[in-house]
Every structure is written in C-alpha cells, then in structure tokens.
Amino acid sequence: MTKILVTGGAGFIGAHVTDRLIKLNHEVLVVDSLKTIGGIPFINRKCKFLKGDITSKATLKKIKKWKPKIIFHLAAQSCSETAYDNPKEDYLSNGMGTYLLALLAKEIKVKYFIYTSSVSVYGSKLKNNITEKSTIEPDSIYGISKYAGEMFVKQVLYKTKIKTAIFRIFNTYGPGENLNFLRKGMVSIFCGYLWKKKPIIVKGSLNRFRDFNYIDDCTKILTNTIENKKLKKNELFNLSAGKSFTVKKLIFEILKTNNKNKYSIKIQKGTQGDSFGYHASNKYLRKKFDNYKFISLKQGLKKYFNWINKIPNKKNLTNYHPLKIKND
Ligand SMILES: NC(=O)c1ccc[n+]([C@@H]2O[C@H](COP(=O)([O-])OP(=O)(O)OC[C@H]3O[C@@H](n4cnc5c(N)ncnc54)[C@H](O)[C@@H]3O)[C@@H](O)[C@H]2O)c1
After folding, report:
1. CATH number at residue 165
2. pLDDT tens for each residue of 285-300
3. Is residue 259 part of a domain?
4. How far out from the chain centre does Cα 103 lie?
5. Could you tell me if the CB of 118 is within 6 A of ligand 1?
6. 62 and 18 in contact (C-beta within 8 Å)?
7. CB within 8 A of 155, min separation 6: which ones?
8. Entry pTM
9. Counting CB atoms within 10 angstroms of each CB, which of 96, 255, 268, 297 has the fewest?
10. How many independent structural domains does the chain possess?
C-alpha cells in the first residue's frame, strides 16, 4: 500500500484513476476544487478528500502534511474551448499549478510524479502519425498552458531522483462524462445530443479527424505506470489508441451503435483553437506497456451506450456516475 495523491481526482479521468488505485489497495488522497468540466464530479467514499485549489498555499500545506509517495497530477482547466472564457484561470491552474505541485514533490521527495498533458501541445499544424519527437507548437490557450506544465515538470524534477512520466492524452471518452456539457469531448458531445434526442450539432468540418481512446484503457495505462519496470527515470508518451477517425465516421459509428440509419445533423462554424486533425503513433507507449491492446471505437461506443442508455433524461447526472452505480 502506497500513499498516492490524485489531483483532479473528482474529474472524469481522475475519478477512474482513483477508483483503480483504491482497488489496487493504495491509500489515496484526492485534491480537487470541484470545478470539473465535462465530467460528472465524483468523490470516491474510499479515498480521503480535500476540496482545494492546487494554487492555494493552504492546500499545498495540507498535501505536504499528508506526505504522498506518488503524485498523479490531473487537476487542470481541461477544456480547449472554455480556456478562451478565462485564460488567466486556465494558465494559473495548468501552468502555475503544475509548477507549485512539482516544487512540492521535490521538497517532500516523492518517488513518482505522473502528469497528464495533452495532444494540444502539438498545435494544429501536425496531422498524421504524431510521435513524441514531433514538433511542439501549441497554438491554443489550453495547449500553451498544458505545455507550460510539461516544462515545469522537466525544469523542476528531471534532475532530481524523482521518476516522472508525462502523458500527452488524446481524446478520451466513456462513462462518467457529463452528457449535459456540450463543449468538451467530441465523442461525449455527439452522444449527448443523441441522448437528449436532439439534432447532432457539428462545429466545423465533417472531415476533421481525431484519435480516440476509451476511459478504461486510459486509466489502465496511467495506473500501470507505477509498477512498470520498463520505464526510464523520465518518460514522455502519446496516450492514444493510434487510430484515425473522421468526424463523419465517428457519427456513423455512434448512430450504428444505436441502430439508427437516419439522424438530423447540423453543421456550424468551427470553434477557436480547434485543430483540423490529429492522429498519433502509440508505438513507443505500446512498446513500454507490453504491447498494450486498446479496445476498438466500436467496442468502446458499445460500452459507453450501455451506460448512457440507462440514464433517464435528467439535468443532474450526479446519481448516475458509473462508479457510484458500481460501488453503491
Ligand atoms: N479528457 C480528455 O480527453 C483529455 C485529453 C487530454 C488531456 N487531458 C488531461 O487529463 C486531465 C484530466 O482531464 P479530465 O477530462 O478528467 O478533466 P476534468 O475537468 O473532468 O477533471 C479535472 C479536475 O481538475 C479539477 N481542477 C481544475 N483546476 C483545479 C485546481 N486549480 N485545483 C484543484 N483542482 C482543480 C477540476 O475540478 C476537475 O475535477 C487534465 O489534466 C486534462 O488536461 C484530458
């Protein structure tokens, strides 16, 4: 049993990561400001929970007192589109917050620091087969702040004895996303319209393309990191399934999963900071994680709708968090 801090542990990915760490018998402290975007906020009853902001001195002091041995740092303003609503908050959480947490990790000498970065750091110029060595050229507020976070991890921790792993996550989808929030997570947005029985609104071209990974795969990769003996002291990975899908094909698969041949789709103007397309090579990740096999988009959507179709059309999804259903 290891003492593990999960920042952002009440958010979409963080809640799943927390749950798996608890199942693996670790003692988990979740620190979260509960400003969750796109996920249904969920606090696992089996973890210690501290409501707080990672940029606040009082919060950092409490973390220091608890003395985690491992930090999973997921807390972030996590949406590219909403970053434009409040760029200062985006930078403070993602850039400054990561700097402060890395300094704390150094001071209390944690063993491992795992940081969830984003595909957004590559910017919108790159397209197919992005590798970890591809040029970094963030051109969105969110991409810039997530990359600032990476640079702080490097600057503060690379020369210490602390192991680090940075994951540039590509679009993750699955149960636990907030289907009422139609500004983050392409898969969740389209599924949300279907769940609400409303026309699917596509902002931008149907030919845009993405690389999607299912939440269970993302969770397993992140949590397997700490026991993975193949990893070097400082690692950097693209976390993606490595398959490219156009928006058109994604919508086709979503409709097919629900046995719908026809559905109303409305195309609107694209959003600021949105990339036309990206697709990653996950060769390095798979090499280091025993040839990890990601589930297909078809399988992932099936699992996603097994959950979605059980939820009545309500505004508040709190009681329908998949982990609440599973753990209660
Ligand atoms: N979901 C994706 O597809 C995706 C893709 C790329 C990167 N990521 C990264 O993965 C991580 C998790 O994303 P998510 O989709 O679960 O987002 P999320 O918004 O659901 O979760 C983030 C959590 O962090 C918390 N938080 C935000 N700012 C905070 C602060 N200053 N102090 C304390 N808590 C704070 C929020 O309340 C939220 O619960 C983020 O770092 C995000 O940038 C996610």
Report:
1. 3.40.50.720
2. 999 999 999 999 999 9
3. no
4. 23
5. yes
6. no
7. 102
8. 0.97
9. 268
10. 1
